[in-house]
Amino acid sequence: MDYFPILQDLLKLNTIVFLLIGVVWALVAGKVLKTAKNSLIAVISGVVIYVVCEGLENIPHGMVMDFLAVFIGTIALGTIPGYLVWMLIRLRNKKGVAGQA
Questions:
Q1: How far is CA 17 from the centre of its chain?
Q2: 21, 44, 56, 62 — which has fewest CB within 10 A?
Q3: Pick from 98, 72, 92, 81: which is nearest to 26 by CA?
Q4: Spatial CA neighbour of 80 closest among 35, 50, 58, 37
């Protein structure tokens, strides 16, 4: 499976910490997003950043660039579920399901 080196590293090494940093970042930063549309844009941005980092990981270059690609890609991968949580919360609040007293 040479297609997804960041996911391979995530499963093999202790880079799960980077993923958790991304999730926490998205949960904290997602509070600022006021609409589900903004949350969707944040999710798409996380996916794009992750895909770019996966592509960079397949290009041979130095160890520093490899580390940065894994670091940034893993954090971007972690932001996806965090922003999805906020998007679901915003959609739920918009429908009037939550917040009723």
A1: 13
A2: 62
A3: 81
A4: 50
Type of residue at 95: K
Question: Is the confidence at residue 35, as pLDDT, over 90?
Answer: no
Whether the pLDDT of residue 39 is over 70: the answer is yes
pTM over 0.90: no
- Contact present, 26 and 79 (Cβ < 8 Å): yes
Spell out a b/e string for 30-57, using b for 16 or more CB atoms within 10 Å of the CB, else e.
beebeebebbbebbeebeebbeebbebb
Q: Are 5 and 54 in contact (CB under 8 A)?
A: yes
Spatial separation of the C-alpha atoms in residues 14 and 1, rounded to whole Å: 19
* Residues with Cβ within 8 Å of residue 87, at least 6 apart in sequence: 36, 39, 40, 43
| Distance separating alpha carbons of residues 79 and 38, to the nearest angstrom | 14
pLDDT at residue 71 in the model = 85
